[in-house]
Amino acid sequence: MEQDWIWGLVGGLVIGLGGAVYLLGNGRIMGASGIIGGLVDGSGWSTWAERLAFLAGVLIMPIVLTPLYSVEITTHATSNLAVIVAAGLCVGIGTRIANGCTSGHGVCGISRLSLRGIVATVFYILAGGLTIVLFRHLLGVI
Amino acid sequence: MRILIALLAGGLFGSGLFISGMTDTTKVQGWLDVFGNWDPTLAFVMGGALIPMAIAWRFVPGRAPLVGGAFPQPPAPEVDRRLVVGSVLFGVGWGLAGLCPGPAIASLSYGGTSGLVFMAAMLVGMGAAPAIATRLDRLATAS
Which PANTHER family match (chain A) (predicted)? Predict the structure, then answer.
């Protein structure tokens, strides 16, 4: 749609606002993989309550906003479960080894001009782009 | 107070992901698909998100967070094997499914079976990551 980029920009500003609130309020980096991963591997259990509260907010707000849309809300994710499992494993392992994902390295890292954030973002975008070339255009799997 | 701020921040994050269309995997994969029908939306989302965050970082030096404590230290500038290998692996998964951790949570309520299976696999991966990272380091010292 024509106005997709406007909603992208508006949504992006709201995402950044969330990151600013988390940073200036609690003194924490808003990184989704770190917040979840710390609960999974136990490294973040001392701050479990604020992590769960954050994740509850992420989960709940789309449910609140969905009725405002007249179109059906869907992720359009592939139903090929082998692809989904492989993707989930790669995202889970990769983000924790690299210590960040699109929110932590991307939004929070780049905005403070962190070299690690910039390098990570370059690598995951390149890898994602090559994955699309390989699995969509050459193999036709996705 | 920490809990309320976290809930508010998470709510804003989830709202932003939802409004921007970033829980729609076709938009994410469309952005990565430079040689196909390229979708520029993600660039606007990232650009929009960087503005409030860049302003927020300017408030950090010499101050403390609202609830007390200290702001996170500047990250070590070094780019190591973990960062590169992990980011490449993440990028492959991101491209395959069009989902990353934030949108995966935000879309759980309408992502269906695929969303739940992705989440389960991601959590398993996160649980296995510390052991894999240790092996990766050992590999580095062996070579």
Answer: INNER MEMBRANE PROTEIN YEDE, SULPHUR TRANSPORT DOMAIN-CONTAINING PROTEIN
